[in-house]
Write a structure and sequence with these properties.
Residues 193-324 form the CRAL-TRIO domain. InterPro entries: CRAL-TRIO_dom, CRAL-TRIO_dom_sf, CRAL/TRIO_N_dom_sf. The protein has 324 residues and is of the alpha/beta class. The protein has 14 helices and seven strands.
Length: 324
């Protein structure tokens, strides 16, 4: 049993009819009733979730540990219980983390927003577009308030939305009401101790005959755009549990170089996500093929965050704080 949490409609942040969605962007974020959702998750997925939530899998970034030593005990993240995904505030500890790690202060935020808006208005791709503040803040946090790379990523986003406008158009409600193939991903209701959102991806649950690939691509865009509306996710990032059980040749045929490059352009160069870890379970030919295509495009930093079920050496290194 899952609870469909209906996020607010996607805001038209672009102010341009050319790239504005042609229909309201409205889809549910699926959050399980319990963070293990007994009977629903395979045992190996449960183990990864339990380890992450209990600080046993080495995914607490060394920088967060350093910050926690600098702060008083009252501002440390909760030790007894992990924070929920659904939150309407940013706790004091994570406000300080945002300042220490992402360089955000009220003064710097306003100065950077003014500078970024000025740069965007002078840019041929983005001039004339009225960007909302909360939209731009995502990009500034992603780049630790460096305005030049933030502007480049906003420009990339506008290019993607103009050239692939269908990605931000609505998916008919009937697919969420009648098709199990829409439930190949879910946001777990408990965060990691470091505040990261945990996204479980089970591509093997997707049936291309039931849920067409064009709608699958829309859903990928929707997942990232909706999750990143959350300030806690913007600050702390996302960790992925990618379970490839059930993937087969019917999925493999969609892992073309063109498709994988589009996903790379969207998720790495256009969407301001902070991706902290990728834990892969049940390796398959689909995973090996997709990874072979995408790997050359990724930075060494991103490659180092891909972990596999039997990758115990790197897991031990991260637990001991030797991985950066």
């Amino acid at each position: 049993m899952t609870i469909p949490i209906l996020f607010a409609k996607f805001k038209n942040c672009y102010g341009s009819p050319e790239i504005a969605p042609s229909a309201p962007f409205r889809h549910p974020i699926w959050v399980p009733n319990t963070f293990l959702e007994q009977g629903s998750l395979q045992s190996n997925v449960k183990t990864v979730v339990e380890n992450w939530l209990n600080r046993q899998d080495g995914f607490l970034p060394s920088r967060v540990k350093q910050i926690s030593r600098l702060l008083d005990m009252s501002s440390k993240p909760p030790e007894e219980e992990n924070l929920p995904f659904l939150m309407d505030y940013v706790p004091e500890f994570f406000q300080r983390k945002c300042e220490e790690e992402l360089n955000e202060t009220p003064e710097r935020k306003q100065t950077a927003l003014q500078e970024l808006r000025s740069m965007l208005q002078k840019n041929q791709t983005t001039s004339g577009i009225d960007f909302l503040e909360d939209f731009l803040v995502q990009y500034l946090r992603r780049h630790k308030y460096k305005t030049k790379p933030a502007m480049k990523m906003v420009e990339n986003s506008v290019d993607i939305y103009r050239n692939h406008n269908y990605l931000i158009q609505s998916i008919p409600d009937k697919y969420f009401l009648l098709r199990s193939s829409t439930k190949w991903w879910r946001v777990l209701p408990k965060r990691c101790p470091d505040g990261c959102t945990i996204l479980l991806v089970q591509v093997g649950l997707w049936n291309p005959d039931e849920f067409p690939f064009e709608l699958y691509k829309k859903m990928v865009a929707m997942i990232f755009l909706q999750i990143l509306r959350d300030p806690m996710t913007q600050i702390n990032g996302i960790k992925f549990i990618q379970d490839f059980k059930g993937t087969s040749f019917q999925h493999l045929k969609y892992a073309t170089p063109q498709t994988m490059y589009l996903f790379y352009q969207c998720t790495i160069n256009s969407i301001p996500g902070r991706y902290k870890a990728f834990h892969c379970l049940n390796e398959s030919i689909f995973l090996k093929t997709a990874w072979t295509i995408v790997k050359p495009f990724l930075s060494q930093k991103m490659r180092s965050r891909e972990m596999y079920e039997n990758d115990r050496d790197r897991r031990d290194q991260m637990i001991e704080g030797r991985s950066k």
